[in-house]
Sequence to fold (429 residues):
Amino acid sequence: MRISRFAAACVFVACQLSQIAHAESSDLSSLQKSVEEMKIMLQSLQTTVSRQQGEIEKLRYENESLKSSNVPQEVHSLPPAQSSGSSKQAQYLPDIGVVADVVGLSSESRDDEEGNDRFSVRDFEIVFGHDIDPYSRLDATVVFSDEEDPELEEAYASFWDFPFDSQLRFGRLKPKVGIVSAMHRDSLDTVDVPLVIQRYLGAEGLSKTGADVTGYVPLPFDSFTQALTFGVLEGGNGEEGQLFGETKRIPTFYARLKNAVDVSDETSVDLGASWLNGSIDDDSGREANSVGLDFTLTHFVSPTQKLKLQSEAFIVDRDLPGASEESEEEDLTYLSHDNPWGYYVLADYRFDERWGVGSRWDWVEPIATELDVERDHENALSTYLTFYQSEFARWRFQYQRAEGIDDVSDNRFFLQGTFAIGTHKHQIQ
Fold:
């Protein structure tokens, strides 16, 4: 094949020379230039043919060496049956991922709280997931920490192929209440969870055993999507939450409506509403209700620059004891708020592919607290800088000034490093 290429090149050169011979004498100088170019091309082709011929000889020599080798062929490759078996076994192995969330906190508070004035592995998550069959999937998250005991945070099966493109989840899960409560802490835009989520639902939001179903409302608009979720969970709050009582026997019901609107190719808006209903004691009554509203605007300034504005608000309605009646369970005195509420507002700007900056304002009225407090609410202002090392590693520095219900201010400094390996469903943003 290479000889034929060489011959074709020679014929091409001959044709060019023939044309040159019949050219007019006035173009002699340009024709001489063409001849020189053809000579250079011919030399290049000769060099290429020589190099390829040498490579052919080298491959021929290596082939002869392999044939004369005394090493059995079975050492280099598995038998066909064994290779096929390994491939089938790999199909049944689950996806496994690991996420390490390391946080350092420096605070003016002298309280010996978890993670205060030290570095700690706040969350070390091992994530498992795999399709059960064409109609369902199992996901699980086990969390370790040097602050708390190991915890099964999630272990649920998802089922799809239902009418209206609906999906069912069954097991231990994070319910789709608002935005932040449904997320893992390593996926947040800030180091800590907003105060309104911590005080009402729990330090990490809700994580309960139950079931929910999510369906999409059929709409004639391509730019508008509406999803509706209904769920039932075991009773109780997350860690340190105050919305419900401690009993798990009385179930909690919840619902969420999410609306997603594509304003343009660069801008989208999400609007959501959530509802929770449960018990505050051991009887069969359902005394606690909460309504939440959330808003997210996302605008892509460029493919690598993004602005996000986000806010959530929760209002609580509970049949509570009077302001002077103490709770025997928690040794607290309920505040006289008829409907305590709280909110946060966040602005996050990804000004570079690997850098982002943002700020968050928190304000919340506690549901229950001690009687002799100086203020009926607490608030905090946080500012942070994020460095996205890659999609598997992220660094964040955050400053927060908090003012508690005891009218004491606290300046807090956070340093967070989040690192992930393997496959997991909540990638680092």
